UniProtKB/TrEMBL annotation:
Cross-referenced SUPFAM superfamilies: Homeodomain-like (SSF46689)
Record-level Gene Ontology MF annotations: DNA binding; transposase activity
Organism, as annotated: hydrothermal vent metagenome
A Pfam entry, by short name: HTH_Tnp_1
Name the UniProt record assigns to this protein: Transposase
Length: 57
């Protein structure tokens, strides 16, 4: 299991936001990270109040 620094996670998640607007699949492929991992990171970031793409409730 790989462990990624919070800085690395933040940098990867920024690719999902403007101006990049990449999809999870694109970022996962580019970064060599499983899509499920990115979804988990996005979920965790949302819980911490950070800007993340996706549906708002």
């Amino acid at each position: 299991m790989n462990h990624y620094s919070s800085e690395r996670k933040e940098a990867v998640l920024k690719k999902l936001l403007p101006p990049h607007n990449m999809t999870v699949a694109e970022v996962a492929r580019q970064e060599g990270i499983k899509p499920k991992t990115l979804y988990n990171w996005r979920h965790d970031a949302k819980k911490r109040g950070l800007p993340v793409p996706g549906k708002t409730t």
